[in-house]
């Protein structure tokens, strides 16, 4: 599953916002029942592994010039919730990219 989100930020700022707020990714999962592991294989790719309810979701966040693409390897067991996951990713992704509140 791919979820692109447009932005008008320099890549450096996108990297900073994603890196500094990646701990918020677990908030997408209801009930706070998720373990999230984030790593940076390269400067424009954030790898995210989410384990919840016995399922593991491997994903990548690809930073491009005008968009950020969230790629999720969705197991067949969770394919029925694809629209909800896509909506949650879009909502949380937009929040992660938004300007920090001061």
Brief descriptors of the model:
alpha+beta, five-stranded antiparallel beta sheet, globular
Architecture overview:
By secondary structure, the chain is an alpha+beta fold. It has helices at 11-21, 82-97; strands at 2-6, 34-42, 45-52, 55-63, 67-73. Strands 1-5-4-3-2 form a 5-stranded antiparallel β-sheet, covered by helices on one side. Strand 4 (55-63) and strand 5 (67-73) form a beta hairpin. The longest helix is centred in the C-terminal third of the chain and has 16 residues, at 82-97. The relative contact order is 0.25.
Q: Brief overview, please?
A:
With 102 residues, the chain is of the alpha+beta class. The chain is 26% helix and 37% strand.
Enumerate the spans where pLDDT stays under 50 for 5 or more consecutive residues: none
Mean pLDDT over the residues: 87
Gyration radius (Cα, Å) is 13 Å
Number of strands: 5
Structural class: alpha+beta
Strand order of the largest sheet: 1-5-4-3-2
* Distance N to C terminus: 34 Å
Question: Could you describe the largest sheet, including whether it forms a barrel?
Answer: 5 strands, antiparallel
| Principal-axis shape | globular
């Amino acid at each position: 599953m791919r979820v692109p989100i447009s932005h008008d930020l320099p890549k450096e700022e996108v990297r900073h916002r994603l890196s500094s707020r990646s701990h918020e990714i677990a908030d997408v999962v209801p009930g706070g029942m998720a373990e999230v592991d984030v790593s940076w294989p390269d400067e424009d790719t954030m790898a995210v592994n989410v384990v919840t309810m016995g399922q593991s979701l491997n994903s990548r966040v690809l930073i491009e010039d005008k968009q950020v693409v969230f790629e999720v390897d969705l197991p067949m067991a969770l394919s029925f919730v694809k629209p909800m996951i896509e909506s949650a990713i879009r909502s949380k992704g937009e929040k992660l990219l938004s300007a920090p509140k001061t």
